[in-house]
Specification:
The complex is a heterodimer of chains A (457) and B (1036).
Chain A (H helix, E strand, L loop, with lengths): L17 H13 L4 H27 L14 H12 L2 H11 L9 H21 L4 H7 L17 H38 L2 H10 L7 H34 L11 H27 L8 H32 L2 H12 L3 H13 L7 H4 L2 H28 L14 H24 L5 H11 L5
Helix pairs in contact in A: 1-17, 2-16, 3-5, 3-10, 3-15, 4-5, 4-9, 5-7, 5-10, 5-16, 7-8, 7-9, 9-10, 10-11, 10-15, 11-12, 11-13, 12-13, 13-15
Chain B lengths: L11 H5 L2 H6 L17 H20 L22 E9 L2 E10 L2 E7 L12 H10 L9 E2 L2 E2 L2 H17 L3 E6 L5 H13 L3 E5 L6 H11 L4 E4 L6 E5 L10 H10 L12 E6 L4 H5 L2 E4 L5 H16 L14 H10 L4 E5 L4 H13 L7 E7 L6 H12 L3 E7 L3 H4 L3 H7 L5 E4 L6 H5 L2 E2 L10 E6 L2 E5 L12 H8 L6 H12 L11 H11 L1 E3 L14 H11 L7 E7 L12 H4 L14 E3 L1 H7 L8 E9 L2 E9 L7 E6 L22 E3 L2 E3 L1 E16 L18 E3 H6 L10 E2 L4 E2 L17 E6 L8 H9 L7 H5 L8 E6 L9 H4 L8 E6 L8 H5 L5 E3 L5 E3 L9 H4 L7 E2 L15 H4 L19 E2 L5 H13 L12 H5 L5 E5 L6 H6 L1 E2 L11 E2 L4 E2 L11 E4 L1 E3 L7
Parallel strand pairs in B: 6-7, 6-14, 9-10, 9-12, 10-11, 14-15, 15-16, 20-24, 21-23, 28-43, 31-42
Antiparallel strand pairs in B: 1-2, 2-3, 4-5, 4-16, 8-13, 17-18, 18-19, 20-27, 21-24, 22-23, 22-27, 25-26, 29-30, 31-38, 32-33, 34-35, 36-37, 39-40, 41-42
Chain lengths: 457, 1036
């Protein structure tokens, strides 16, 4: 029984009942993976394999395998790090902030978005690790662990250390939040497995669901924990990228040393995160035939967020230029002129085109509701966001204060390999997730069937 | 017999006859249940496997053992970890430097200048600093060889002596060929050799000939000699193509003298003025106040014109030759005339006629006796081109029976070397005493290696009545033998060269010196201790110029052209590898050329105009193309390097490359251009003025340069410079006082800080670098490399912009752009740019941006103002390097030690022999860690320890950084800024704030002192003194 509203568009279409939902979502977990899945998974593993090879070579021979030099000490490594962290923002934003704002449309996309967050943060975290000259020491020396080295302690002044805390906290909270949401759905799969008589699956999913029984008291606790975690995650969404931006903002490098970075980075993160969610969901929706759950309306709403954040980012770019002129610091002025017209002009203008101009197309309803256009633009946005980080990091470093040290950065196969590695991991993990975990939050979607998807057929 | 059924049984089991017993009844021994199957079971296999793997991996965990063998009996004077210093002398051909060798546990590890020498006065240059690594060259001969086989000294001595006797008996000619020999005792052995073999004679030649000068002086004064020069007395210096700060004659000495005339302060507001007329942009030209580009074909005419201009003023007759419209020439002549007696004209030409006119000019100006000192003849170059040419002609004509090459390599470094090499086959005896198997040695039958100079005894007379000694700082590493002993051995005398030298000194100099009164041993000890002996100048002959200037002018008029249109080549000596004799030294290969900043490469410099005309594209990244240069029938193919300041229509090519038998470091690097040098007017001419055609090829080439951006983009926070006239008015001329805006006012950036600053209660180390004294030579870079075990990384890694130098010299060209906001135009250097050198090293900031960003506190601030780097703690995030505004931090991208990949570039960390040069006080850094200048913290610590042991305060001057010690021009001053008496406090005019006397913020009174990037508030402990050029303001 669905009630339709004349004011709102339906969030779930197709006149789904609760049992339809269980069936539609659980089916993918229960069935054997399709050939398409295997192909995609195979490709991901190949990418991962290539990435592992390049990473091993880098670890074995040294960071010199990359294209970095005395002037440009960070390039693709930290670009990729910031890019992935940015992507990792959407999931928690959708789950936490939209939960607090009671945005029910989030319900059919939050699961996949959160999974994406987790994987993106893992991808992001690989870069600060492997970019270290001595990973085998750095991975634990960067933590404030009691040690036998005397008074050796971490340096709390360093934004890199703040990163360690910010990202590990964010990752932990996101993981817990995501997993908690999965518990009732695991129980659904278990129950179905029991009914079908598949004992192994029943046992596995029973363990995964921690023996969820679905009593009213349990549900009550579940709701409160969800709210608490949402409350905890909300500041994290803002803090993580704020802190990441401080890696740059607290430095003396012209082009990095700007106070606008925290809000601008957060907006950029949401921008790229939503774009990545769209890219993935549009594929998932198609492959798993979830058109009724992830509707054009969802896509449109997300595209609106992309216009908003994209515009914020665009204004931030222009503000930076204004401040560089207004601030009258010659090195800063040069840094920005050099961004736009120096040797890396192509990166800058790629960024401007992809991030500032392309999302403006979403003002047009036809484009905003077109799946093909959305898909293409979502990829363009992420290309743009990658260039944004590249522009900030490389073009600021490559020509800073002393012209004698100015140089160029050219990536090697190993720089690229590391990036490929994270793609391989990300897609492999996402495919495994899509196969073994319910990609849509069944419990929550069932709660909005009544209010939002009344359409009698 | 009664049949009984009595049964005997072995045991109860047999009696019972149970099946289990029956089954095993035929077995003698009881089966205890161990399986009879000898094969191992699966479990056993797993157990064994587990044990083996565990054991093997445990064994593998053990670090490889390096044996350090302690002394059984401690040698006298060798205390582990305490360095010993020995005064000695660096000599390479005619290049001379009095030095102090630092040895640790019997190994020479560092060379410093000897300040007791009146000639080099404690100065060094890059080649001297680097020569310690040549001692540990893997390409050195391990012992004598006959042909390609090792032989014993006894056998070789027998054979050589026999062959010499055979040649002498047949009346065949015997030659000893060498570069300039400065050593009187060596000459004495040669004389004794010649006495034994009357057909023997001695031929000297120089890689870069000064024979024209010798002949000119002969023509002028009736005696073949080269006078001493005193640049310190010259208020006006005109150099026509003489690179006296870089390679000409005695650059260390001249740099020392020149720098005294370039040091200015509030009190002394005068400095010399220096005009340079040259083809290639040389180090000297880069330091000149006025620089004019001329073609090599104009060189003689420029000198002639200068002669005419001066002669007109002096009332002498002018000459037939001359040239008009050479900018600055008339101005130079006017000023020369007004500075008569205190001026100096030098010329790099090897044409005797040109040098004759130069002598004439100096004579008219009355410079003889003040800046030109014929009474103090210098012996640095004695090579005779004509004799050498005659020798080679004789050799080709098979007129020579035997030749001994004494530490020289003419097959490589003489223009007719190839012919000589071919002619060697015809001789019955060929011997080389070179300590490596070089081009000449490998073509010689007998290789009888001499010691390296750091292993040998010798004496020298670099100038008339100035003597010095060299003494071994290490026992010979290989089975080499002092070449003088070899010579005498072959002459049938067995001598001990040490006693020989000592005896000679007893006979020659003992008694003339003041220290003689204490007896010979005391005299000898003092000479050895000082390294030098100076006797008063007894030569009181008066020299008056008597050259035939008009004949010279006629010859110049014929040989030079005012308006040549074709291409010309100017061949010069490279600053790093010099004449090529030290080419196998990676320290020199990786030393950036002071001007081009190129390393590990040989290239042809061409002007911007010609590059455009020829279509050669040499972009900022060092990508260029090869060009074919045809000259006099010879073709060389070299990458083109577009060089601002190169005279249009000319190409500069360096000597010292293209060696074929030199060792892995330099083998087949570049082209040998010695064969392009030809005789002109009886002496070798290093310019090719006709028949030169460069043609660009399609082949791309990548040059390795440590600096690829050429201008300072008008950033006055980096370089602050002015001209002398402004400085005279206001000593703060050129200073830029950047202000930063606060809410309502603009303030000095130093006053705004989040931090309260440090208090350095003991020492406060600081450095001052005078941009006006720094000539940019690069000796400090090599000194720093040797002192601090800085890894050499090879060409490819420099192309990747990853050189490891802790100290670099930034070289900036001026740009023609006037609009400070036209960044595109500012990037391009002027056609004939002014040049500024800025040594750049860790600035040891008081508010160091690197320190705050390190997540593990691996870089921290010391209580003495040092920015310290703890390698062991570094995890290699490179954040510090990114945040360093001066970009002086260097990351270990690879493992540079014990790594085959860097074997060739970095032998001192990859071979057992090379490792002996490492400074044991400084860690060799592992891969993945950051490193940078430490202000030679090991020297600071050792100085402090010495003072502490002696229970006294550390005195100023006890701690000297390696760069400071090597700086011939004294541009670098290091010291304690808390000590008001220290040289740095005096120089910077530091006044103490009585409220907080030891604060890190010092009041700097020197109006010239500034800190680079003052406005970002990092407060470095290194101060630069403004660059002042002695130019007229209109031209500034």
């Amino acid at each position: 029984m669905q009630v339709s509203s004349s004011l709102r568009e339906s969030l779930i279409t197709g006149g789904k009942t609760a049992s339809d939902v269980s069936e539609d979502i659980s089916r993918h977990v229960e069935n054997k993976p399709t050939q398409l899945w295997w192909m995609a998974f195979g490709v991901s593993l190949v990418l991962l394999g290539f990435g592992v090879y390049t990473m091993s070579m880098t670890l074995w021979n040294g960071i010199g395998m990359w294209g970095l030099n005395k002037t440009v000490g960070w390039a693709w490594d930290i670009t990729n790090f910031v890019w992935w962290v940015g992507i990792g923002h959407a999931g928690t934003l959708i789950s936490a902030i939209l939960l607090l704002f009671r945005q029910k449309w989030r319900m059919s996309i939050n699961r996949a978005a959160e999974a994406m967050t987790i994987f993106a943060v893992i991808c992001a975290a690989t870069f600060p690790l492997i970019h270290m000259g001595r990973l085998w020491l750095g991975f634990y020396w960067a933590l404030p662990l009691p040690n036998a080295f005397g008074s050796l302690w971490v340096n709390f002044n360093s934004p890199l250390l703040w990163d360690v805390f910010a990202i590990s906290t964010y990752f932990t909270v996101s993981l817990v939040f995501w997993y908690m949401g999965l518990i009732p759905d695991f129980a659904v799969i278990r129950d179905r497995a029991v009914r079908m008589g598949n004992k192994t699956r029943a046992a596995v999913y029973n363990a995964l669901s921690f023996g969820w029984q679905g009593g009213a008291r349990t549900w009550m606790r579940y709701e409160s924990v969800a709210l608490i975690l949402a409350g905890l995650s909300t500041p994290l969404v803002l803090s993580v990228h704020t802190i990441v931006s401080m890696d740059f903002a607290t430095s003396v490098v012209p082009g990095w040393h700007t106070t606008i970075f925290p809000p601008y980075f957060v907006a950029g993160a949401i921008f790229s995160g939503f774009a990545m969610v769209l890219t993935l969901l549009l594929i998932t929706r198609k492959v798993f035939k979830l058109e009724d759950y992830i509707t054009i309306y969802h896509v449109e709403l997300m595209n609106i967020i992309i216009i908003v954040t994209g515009s914020i980012v665009g204004i931030a770019y222009i503000t930076e230029f204004f401040i560089a002129w207004y601030g009258q610091v010659p090195a800063e002025q040069y840094a920005f002129i050099n961004r736009a017209f120096g040797p890396y002009w192509w990166a800058y203008w790629s960024m401007m085109t992809c991030n500032v101009i392309s999302p403006q197309l979403f003002w047009i309803k036809k484009i905003r509701t077109s799946l093909v256009a959305t898909f293409i633009l979502s990829i363009i946005v992420n290309i743009g966001m990658w260039f944004e980080r590249f522009v900030i990091i490389v073009t600021s470093l490559h020509r800073d204060y002393l012209p004698s040290s100015w140089s160029m950065f050219y990536p090697t196969m190993y720089d690229i390999g590391e990036y490929v590695l994270t793609f391989g991991f990300f897609f492999a993990a996402f495919l495994l997730f899509a196969k073994f975990f319910p990609v849509i939050n069944m419990a929550e979607v069932k709660s909005i069937l009544k209010s939002s998807s009344e359409k009698k057929h | 017999m009664n049949e009984t059924k009595k049964t005997y049984w072995k045991g109860i089991q047999q009696l019972k006859n149970d099946p289990a017993f029956v089954k095993h009844a035929d077995k003698e021994f009881v089966d205890l249940g161990v399986e009879a199957d000898p094969r191992h079971t699966r479990r056993d296999f797993l157990k064994m496997m587990g044990f083996t793997v565990a054991a093997a991996s445990l064994a593998a965990c053990e670090a490889p053992i390096r044996k350090a063998i302690p002394y059984v009996n401690k040698p006298v004077d060798v205390d582990p970890s305490i360095p010993n210093y020995y005064a000695s002398t660096y000599v390479n051909g005619g290049d001379y430097c009095s030095i102090v060798v630092k040895t640790r546990e019997g190994r020479p590890i560092k060379i410093d200048g000897n300040s007791l020498s009146s000639i080099t006065q404690g100065g060094t240059n890059a080649q001297v600093e680097a020569s310690v690594m040549s001692l540990y060259d893997n390409y050195r001969l391990r012992g004598p060889k006959k042909g390609n086989d090792s032989a014993s000294w006894e056998d070789i001595d027998k054979e050589v002596t026999a062959k010499l006797a055979e040649v002498a008996a047949a009346g065949g000619q015997i030659r000893i060929v060498s570069n300039t020999i400065l050593s009187p005792s060596t000459k004495a052995t040669i004389d004794r050799f010649k006495a034994k073999y009357p057909t023997a004679s001695h031929v000297q030649y120089d890689q870069v000939s000064y024979y024209g000068m010798l002949k000119a002086n002969e023509a002028s004064f009736g005696k073949q000699f080269i006078p001493s020069y005193d640049f310190s007395k010259a208020k006006l210096i005109v150099s026509v193509g003489a690179d006296f700060l870089g390679t000409w004659l005695s650059p260390i000495e001249f740099t020392k003298q020149y720098s005294t005339t370039r040091k200015i302060s509030e009190k002394n507001r005068n400095m010399s003025r220096h005009y340079q007329f040259e083809t290639n942009l040389t180090l000297t030209g880069a330091n000149a106040d006025y620089r004019t580009m001329i073609r090599p074909s104009q060189q003689g005419l420029v000198v002639a014109q200068l002669y005419n201009l001066i002669a007109a003023k002096a009332g002498n007759t002018t000459l037939s030759a001359g040239i008009d419209k050479v900018s600055n020439l008339e101005k130079a002549a006017d000023e020369l005339w007004s500075n008569r007696g205190n001026s100096l004209v030098v010329c790099g030409s090897n044409d005797k006629d040109v040098q004759l006119l130069v002598n004439g000019i100096n004579s008219m100006l009355g410079n003889y006796g003040s800046t030109v000192l014929p009474n103090k003849a210098s012996n640095f170059r004695q090579g005779n081109d004509e004799q050498m040419a005659a020798f080679i002609a004789d050799a080709e004509a098979s007129k020579i029976g035997a030749v001994i090459f004494y530490n020289c390599n003419p097959v490589y470094d003489h223009p007719m070397g190839t012919k000589l090499g071919a002619a060697l086959k015809n001789m019955s005896l060929t011997v080389s005493t070179s300590y490596t198997e070089d081009e000449t040695s490998s073509l010689s039958e007998y290789k009888t290696p001499d010691h390296h100079y750091l292993e040998s005894w010798n004496d020298f007379e670099p100038k008339a009545n100035s003597y010095s000694l060299s003494q071994p700082a290490i026992t010979p590493i290989f089975k080499s033998r002092q070449a003088q002993e070899s010579l005498m051995m072959w002459a049938g005398e067995k001598i001990d060269y040490f006693s020989f030298v000592k005896n000679n000194w007893k006979n020659w100099y003992y008694g003339k010196a003041e220290s003689s009164i204490l007896g010979f041993q005391a005299f000898w000890d003092k000479c050895l201790y000082d390294g030098v002996l100076e006797l008063g100048s007894p030569d009181t002959t008066s020299y008056s110029f008597a050259g035939d200037v008009s004949a010279a002018a006629a010859s110049i008029g014929a040989n030079y052209k005012a308006n040549n249109t074709g291409f010309e080549i100017a061949i010069y000596e490279s600053y790093g590898v010099g004449n090529g004799s030290q080419a196998n030294n990676p320290l020199l290969q990786e030393l950036p050329d002071p001007i081009t900043k190129a390393v590990w490469d040989h290239y042809a410099t061409i002007s911007q105009k010609d590059a455009a005309a020829l279509g050669v594209d040499n972009d900022a990244e060092g990508r260029t193309q090869l060009i074919n240069i045809v000259a006099g029938g010879k073709t060389i193919k070299l990458p083109a390097l577009v060089q601002p300041g190169q005279a249009p229509g000319t190409i500069g090519v360096a000597l010292g490359y293209g060696r074929t038998k030199v060792g892995k470091v330099a083998e087949n690097l570049g082209q040998n251009v010695y064969p392009m040098v030809a005789l002109l007017n009886g002496s070798l001419n290093y310019n090719i003025t006709s028949g030169v055609t460069p043609t660009p090829t399609d082949e791309a080439y990548q040059l390795a340069q440590t600096q690829i951006h050429q201008t300072y983009m008008g950033r006055s926070n980096v370089i602050q410079e002015s001209v002398l006239s402004e400085f005279k008015k206001d000593p703060q001329a050129g200073r830029e006082f950047t202000k930063i805006s606060k809410w309502e006012e603009k303030v000095d950036p130093a006053t705004v800080s989040l931090w309260k600053g440090h208090d350095y209660n003991n020492h406060h180390w600081g450095m001052a670098i005078d941009l006006n004294s720094c000539t940019g030579c690069g000796a400090c870079i090599v000194a720093c490399n040797v002192e601090n075990n800085v890894a050499l990384v090879g060409k490819q890694e420099v192309i990747n912009r990853r050189e490891m130098h802790w100290l670099r010299i930034d070289r900036y060209y001026s740009s023609d752009a006037t609009d400070i906001n036209n960044y595109e135009a500012l990037e391009h250097a002027a056609e004939n740019p002014e040049v500024v050198f800025q040594p750049m090293l860790c600035q040891h900031c008081n508010n160091a941006p690197c320190e705050t960003v390190c997540p593990v506190a691996a870089t921290t601030h010391s209580t003495e103002g040092l920015n310290q780097m703890t390698y062991n703690r570094c995890i290699g995030t490179r954040y510090c390097a990114n945040n360093c505004p001066y970009k002086v931090r260097r990351f270990n991208w690879f493992k540079y030690h014990d790594n085959q990949q860097f074997y060739e570039a970095n032998p001192s960390m990859n071979t057992d022999l090379g490792r002996m040069v490492l400074n044991p006080d400084v860690t060799v850094r592992s891969r993945g860690v950051m490193e940078k200048c430490s202000f030679c913290v090991q020297r600071i610590q050792s100085g402090k320890l010495t003072a502490k042991k002696e229970k006294r305060k550390l005195k100023d001057g006890e701690v000297i950084t390696a760069c400071q010690a090597s700086c011939t021009s004294g541009a670098i001053v290091f010291g304690d800024m808390n000590d008001s008496e220290s040289q740095i406090s005096q120089l910077l005019q530091i006044t103490r704030d009585e409220k907080r006397p030891n604060s890190s913020d010092k009041n700097i009174g020197n109006p010239r002192a500034y800190r680079v990037l003052e406005e970002i508030g990092v407060k470095p402990n290194i101060f630069y003194l403004t660059k002042i050029k002695n130019k007229d303001k209109t031209n500034a």
